[in-house]
Request: fold
Amino acid sequence: MPNIGLPELLIIFAIIVLLFGASRLPGLGKSVGQSVRGFKTGLSGEDEEKPKELENKPGDDTTPPAPPTA
Reply:
């Protein structure tokens, strides 16, 4: 397989710009980055189980306080 040099990379980049448009490239790059990050996280299995002390943090109580009794 031949090596890909700078001229080939420029041609590939020009084709990508023509296909997607210059305004959509930042969003496309962001979504590719998030996909790669999610794939790496899935491979490592880090987020499969959360420790119980992280699930119920103090101060995360979502129930409203009881009204004062008169």
Summary: The mean pLDDT is 80.
